[in-house]
Amino acid sequence: xxxxxxxxxxxxxxxxxxxxxxxxxxxxxxxxxxxxxxxxxxxxxxxxxxxxxxxxxxxxxxxxxxxxxxxxxxxxxxxxxxxxxxxxxxxxxxxxxxxxxxxxxxxxxxxxxxxxxxxxxxxxxxxxxxxxxxxxxxxxxxxxxxxxxxxxxxxxxxxxxxxxxxxxxxxxxxxxxxxxxxxxxxxxxxxxxxxxxxxxxxxxxxxxxxxxxxxxxxxxxxxxxxxxxxxxxxxxxxxxxxxxxxxxxxxxxxxxxxxxxxxxxxxxxxxxxxxxxxxxxxxxxxxxxxxxxxxxxxxxxxxxxxxxxxxxxxxxxxxxxxxxxxxxxxxxxxxxxxxxxxxxxxxxxxxxxxxxxxxxxxxxxxxxxxxxxxxxxxxxxxxxxxxx
Length: 388
Ligand SMILES: Cc1ncc(COP(=O)(O)O)c(C=O)c1O
Fold this sequence. Notes:
Layout: H1 2-13, E1 17-20, H2 34-40, H3 55-64, E2 78-81, H4 83-95, E3 101-106, H5 110-118, E4 122-127, H6 139-143, E5 150-156, H7 168-180, E6 184-188, H8 207-210, E7 217-222, E8 235-238, H9 242-254, H10 260-271, H11 275-297, E9 313-317, H12 323-333, E10 339-342, E11 344-345, E12 359-363, H13 368-384
Parallel strand pairs: 1-10, 3-4, 3-5, 5-6, 6-7
Antiparallel strand pairs: 2-8, 7-8, 9-12, 11-12
Bound molecules: pyridoxal-5'-phosphate.
């Protein structure tokens, strides 16, 4: 994406409006509650916090999961991390050693591979079917990829980059598979608050549904998307496995402490009782934007839009053979009514980049008028684009 960012800057310098559909950062204002404790509990000394995280914040994250079937959870089941990014890194180190294999349905959030590579963990992508809205393949397909080196399965639910929300059956299939093959199940739930059209989100921490699997489940969360607070860098690991908490805490101790000011802000956000606001105002806004983008995209010949209902992404198929080249051309050589669009090429979301060559991820975290315009620009671009 770095190369494309440079091209986007150059396009802006030429006076072209670049509509950014590539970014996964929410645009609604971070609730003002964020500042409450920072203002009122202003510490005399900005000292280290407990490595595992501020006890009240750990408790607040646990309490948040009581909305998702985790009524029994307490601060002891939670580690506060530097964003979900650090939670990914710690969870992988808890579950896997160098040379081990991690199964991830693909397309997947690109940083899973980047972080796994830092620890010499091999990511094995398991193909999902575009036509079925990125449903998981049958258990036998997964089982066919399991070797003596396989130690964990990882998913994001709701999913980045596809927007897919996994069904109860799919989650059971994965949990049973993990049990049968003695694997960890790492579930990244940072988009759990963004689910539309009456679709039901089920957390792997839901005790009623998944009690028997809890010793192998590690869930990751974050305030980045939930509260539109990406820059505050607060995430969490939540697991009922005490050994995993103890192992994870060693990594937390090695980096001493997550930011104490950020933790105060995060605590204020959890304390502000924002869940209704997220469920109504924010979800309605995203749903409306999703519909606007989908409506625009569906007028474009050859563009295929899957049926999905979560997060704030669409992973669409374009009538091109190399979406990276197309995204480059859009920024370097094209504009329509003074504007172009910046896309996230699908190649970054696959174990084998070429498998994503026909796809792009579009994020609908910009206002509706821009989304409408983006679809028009894309339509004009695709009618003009000639592959070299
Ligand atoms: C699926 C997923 N997990 C983790 C992260 C990282 O989140 P954080 O900002 O909490 O580090 C992202 C960010 O886009 C994401 O999409």
